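R.M. (postdoc): so does anyone remember the format we settled on? I'll just put the structure tokens first.
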């Protein structure tokens, strides 16, 4: 089987992204792994962590033949930071550098240089402070690739949880839940499970928005007027859907045994369950893109940068899943 080439963006340089990249390259990876980042910054971080790794700058024009990753060797597609990096200290001068890493990875995927992108965490606040409107990796990658609607799905083991809305204030969620949105998300989720995960007929539990899934309209009308009609319409088309289900029922072991994925209506309806089940190995997969992207399911952890205490479990899981999905 062909060896996939994966591009790993090192993320916010003042955070734990570079630490995780150093950790990852010390071990075995069943792929041709390239790191996007500032080579000197990565050397400095490796030295600070006491990691004896060989950092090699790769000419992007020389990406002809894949080569197996060698433990202890970091192959870097060099992108210079704008200003020197201090662990844990955000600097908006480097915000555009972070986006340049993503652009490099997206362009390479679209050319066919890379089978998938794996992303280390970025800091949304510092990018916005630099004058660049940025709500997250998911939305940025969708805009860069021309994808009309990205769908965020979190994976931990056999549990898959997708989100109808992502980074919205809770007060704005109800107005955002519309029939067209729910239908689009469900179609993308069903298609993504078939295409990326090779599930022939995905079974999806659709959560309601309100407690008790609205209790027949007594605790809210979204289930009766929006979510329920969409679920019924798509069921008639052949999609295997359950719901709208109360969220406190959808995530019970009995229900999860009957499903391949759960669709939550908003960020904090679904993510706490994933983080409880697998905080150290949760993976973010973006469905609806023309390229394959996985990511860690955590933030930049600025206080841990350069300390050697960062847990690379989520990044390791994201890389493993990217390799698996790129081959399928």
């Amino acid at each position: 089987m062909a060896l996939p080439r994966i591009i790993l963006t090192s993320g916010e340089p003042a955070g734990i992204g570079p630490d995780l990249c150093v950790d990852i390259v010390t071990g075995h990876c069943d792929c041709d792994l390239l790191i996007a980042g500032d080579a000197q910054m990565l050397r400095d971080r490796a030295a600070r962590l006491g990691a004896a790794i060989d950092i090699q700058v790769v000419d992007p024009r020389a990406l002809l033949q894949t080569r197996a990753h060698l433990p202890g060797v970091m192959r870097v597609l060099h992108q210079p930071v704008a200003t020197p990096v201090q662990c844990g200290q955000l600097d908006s001068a480097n915000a555009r550098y972070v986006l340049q890493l993503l652009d490099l990875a997206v362009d390479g995927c679209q050319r066919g240089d890379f089978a998938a992108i794996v992303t280390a965490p970025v800091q949304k606040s510092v990018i916005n402070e630099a004058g660049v409107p940025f709500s997250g990796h998911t939305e940025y990658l969708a805009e860069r690739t021309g994808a009309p609607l990205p769908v965020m799905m979190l994976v931990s083991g056999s549990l898959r949880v997708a989100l109808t809305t992502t980074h919205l204030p809770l007060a704005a969620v109800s107005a955002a839940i519309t029939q067209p949105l729910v239908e689009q998300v469900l179609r993308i989720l069903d298609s993504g499970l078939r295409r990326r995960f090779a599930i022939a007929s995905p079974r999806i539990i659709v959560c309601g928005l309100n407690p008790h899934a609205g209790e027949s309209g007594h605790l809210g009308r979204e289930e009766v007027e929006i979510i329920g009609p969409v679920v019924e319409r798509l069921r008639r088309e052949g999609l295997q859907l359950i719901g709208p289900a109360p969220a406190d029922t959808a995530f019970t072991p009995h229900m999860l045994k009957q499903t391949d994925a759960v669709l939550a209506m908003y960020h904090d309806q679904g993510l706490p369950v994933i983080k409880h089940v697998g905080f150290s190995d949760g993976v973010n997969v973006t469905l609806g893109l023309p390229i394959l992207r996985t990511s860690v399911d955590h933030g930049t952890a600025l206080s841990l940068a350069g300390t050697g205490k960062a847990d690379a479990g989520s990044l390791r899981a994201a890389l493993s899943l990217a390799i698996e999905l790129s081959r399928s």
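R.M.: ...and that's the designed sequence above, right after the tokens. Also worth knowing: Residues 205 and 250 are 7 Å apart (CA to CA). Residues 95-111 form the longest helix (17 residues).
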